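In this supplementary section we document a worked example of the pipeline. Step one takes a protein sequence of length 384 as its only input; no multiple sequence alignment statistics are reported here. Step two produces a three-dimensional model, which step three serialises into C-alpha cells for compact storage. The input and output of this example are shown verbatim.
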Amino acid sequence: MDAYLIDAVRTPFGKHAGGLSHIRPDDLAALPLARLLERNPWLDPADIDDVILGDTNGAGEDNRNVARMSALLAGLPVSVPGVTVNRLCASGAEAVVQAGRMIRAGDAETVLAGGVESMSRAPFVLPRPDRAFPRTLDLVATQVGWRLTNPRFAPEWVTSLGECAQRVAAEFGIGRAAQDEWAVRSHELADAAWRAGRFDDRVMPVDSVTRDESIRPGTDTAVLAGLRPAFTPDGAVTAGNSSPINDGAAAVLVSGQPGEAPMGRLVSAVTVGVSPERFSIAPVDAVRKVLTRSGLDFSDVAVWEFNEAFAAMVLSCLHELPEVPRERVNMQGGAIAFGHPLGASAPRIIIDLCDQLRRRGGGYGVAAACIGVGQGMAVVVHVD
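The serialised model returned by step three reads:
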C-alpha cells in the first residue's frame, strides 16, 4: 500500500518573543490539527489511527507527550492515541515518515503527523545537584543547542552547531560573502512567494499573525556584512546568514487512500549518521542513499528543499552535491527567512516541496535536513 499526503496546514512561524510566543506549544500544535479536521469534513475523527508529532525540546510545556496532549486539545476523540518523536531538526519529517511506514505496513489507514516548537517558551532547567546541600544552583537554558552535556563526549562533538558548520564551509572555501548572498536570496524568494499568494491555502492565521514573522524584505548583502560573527571572533556565520529562533506548528494528513487530488506520495526516506561535528554535510550521504534506494538519478528530481539551518550548511551540501542545480534548491526561500521552529521545520519543507511540484505539473522532489549530533535525513516525494 502507498502512503499519500492528502492535506496539510501550518501556523505562521513566529519570531522569538513575537506574535506566537504567548501560546503554549501543546495549544500551538492543536491549531493545525483542528484546522485539518475542519478542512476535511469527510474524515471521521474517530477513524484516525494515530497522531505523530515531532518536538525537539520537550523540557517545558511540551513535556509528557505533546502529540497526545495536542490531539486532545484539538478536539480529537479520546480513543485517538498520540506519540511524540525527537530527531532534533528532522523531528517533524520523522513523524511524517513514520506515519507513512505505518500505512505501508498495514498498521494504520489514516494518521495525522507533523511537528511543533515554541522556542520562545523553552524553559530554563535546574540540574539535580551532585551533592546534598549545594551552595550554588545554575540554571541551564533549553532554547537551542547543547545542554547538560555528557563529559564523555569528545570536545569537538559538542562544539556549537554554528561553529561546526562554519568550519566545514571553510574547508570548502565557502566564505562570508557567499553565505550572505545565499541569505539574501532566501529572504527575497520567501517574500516573493508570500506576495504571490503561494501560502494562502497552507498557512492559517493565528490571532494577528498572518505571515511568517522572520522574513525581512529588502535585506541586502550590505546590511548583512555589518553583522558581527556569531560563534567565533573571525567567523563567517552570523545571525543574518543563520536560521532564527522561532515558534510554529505544522500538521499533515497521511492516508493509504489517495482521494481525488492528494498533495503527493511518500516514496522513500533515509536517515544517516556522521561524526557529530560534521552534521552540516550529513544530508549529502542521505540524499545519495535515498536516490539509490528509490531507483532515481539526480536528473529525475525536479525540485529540491534543503532546510536552511545555516547558509554555510546548505552551501557545503551543494558543494558536495554538484549534480544538484542550485536554481532548483529552495525556490521559494528557506528557513533563514521563514524561520526554524525545530520540530515544525521539516514538515514545512515537505509541504512546500509538494506544492511546488504541483505548480510545475508534477514529478519527483527531495527534502533534506541536517540534524544535530551528526545525522542527516532525506525524503523523496512524488506528485502526479
